[in-house]
Specification:
Blueprint: E1 3-9, E2 18-20, E3 22-24, E4 37-40, E5 59-63, E6 68-72, E7 80-83, H1 88-99, E8 104-107, E9 124-126, H2 127-134, H3 142-149, E10 153-156, E11 174-178, E12 181-190, H4 208-219, E13 234-240, E14 249-251, E15 256-258
Parallel strand pairs: 9-10
Antiparallel strand pairs: 1-2, 1-10, 3-14, 4-8, 5-6, 6-7, 11-12, 11-15, 12-13
Helix pairs in contact: 2-3
Protein name: MOSC N-terminal beta barrel domain-containing protein
Organism: Nodularia spumigena UHCC 0060
Pfam families: MOSC, MOSC_N
């Protein structure tokens, strides 16, 4: 039976995650605290792993309820703790000093800074999918892949690529319920350069994208709507929520039900 196994929030876009037991839905459909902050360069562009591999060298630990971040960079002798609301200029100064150029920290408490602003709901993947994809790359494990893919919601109790039934013909959506929260699957998430990079060092895994594309195509279940796959560098599912879900709570262990009848899944034989 599908259930909510993990909730991961990323309070500052591109920095480390924090695992929580529950999360609240905002009116935008995003999860509270997720990508609430983002780092910007002087030209107003995101400072992230796509453009700056040094971002992977920054370690951060969040206490989202006390609104603090413990920040560690190679230029700091020990971690420094900042208040996310009261010390934003100090956080930006510390990041600027390490990165070697001026950055600012911006906040959007209503939607955060999602990659897909049309579908700002949590990204969904199964634990089995992360385990399977990690097996394609010698030396990587499920936690390595979790940190590379950076999804919000992990589904347990299902086979690999279960989430690929959460989208249908282009223009259609699939409805599902997590506990008492309703949401819609929209499309498979197009990946960027970040999964190719070691989340601690920024070093690229040799031929990561080539291996990923070959294996993703080879393992794509036959019940998947392939019309979205103009290329096979896609993993996890983008979602959308309506304003009626505002204030509802996601809770670890919540049962997950697909409301729109999906295509049948053929489970692997034991």
């Amino acid at each position: 039976m599908p259930y909510l196994a993990k909730i991961l929030l990323y309070p500052i876009k591109s920095l480390d995650s924090v695992e929580v037991e529950q999360a609240q839905v905002l009116s935008s459909g995003a999860l509270e605290y997720d990508r609430e902050f983002a780092i910007f360069d002087p030209q107003g562009r995101f400072v992230n792993g796509k453009r700056h591999s040094k971002i992977h060298l920054i370690r951060s630990q969040f206490d989202i309820f006390n609104r603090t971040i413990s920040l560690q960079t190679p230029k700091l002798d020990s971690p420094r703790v900042f208040h996310l609301d009261e010390e934003q200029p100090e956080i930006a100064a510390s990041l600027s000093d390490f990165l070697g150029f001026a950055v600012t920290l911006r906040q959007n408490p209503f939607m955060g800074f999602p990659d897909d602003t049309n579908s700002p709901g949590p990204t969904v993947i199964s634990t089995a999918t992360l385990t399977e994809v990690a097996s394609w790359f010698p030396g990587l494990n499920v936690d390595d892949m979790r940190r590379r893919i950076r999804a919000n919601i992990e589904v347990g109790g299902v086979p690999a690529f279960w989430e690929d039934q959460l989208f249908s013909q282009q223009g259609d959506i699939v409805s599902l319920r997590v506990g008492d929260v309703s949401l819609f699957g929209v499309n498979p998430c197009q990946r960027c350069i970040v999964p190719t990079q070691n989340p601690d060092s920024g070093e690229a895994y040799p031929n990561f994208q080539k291996i990923f594309v070959q294996q993703r195509q080879a393992t794509l279940p036959d019940w998947v709507d392939s019309s979205y796959f103009n290329h096979f560098y896609r993993l996890s599912v983008n979602t959308r929520l309506t304003p009626s879900e505002t204030g509802k709570i996601w809770q670890i262990g919540d049962k997950i039900d697909i409301i729109t009848p999906p295509k049948p899944i053929k489970l692997p034989e034991n």
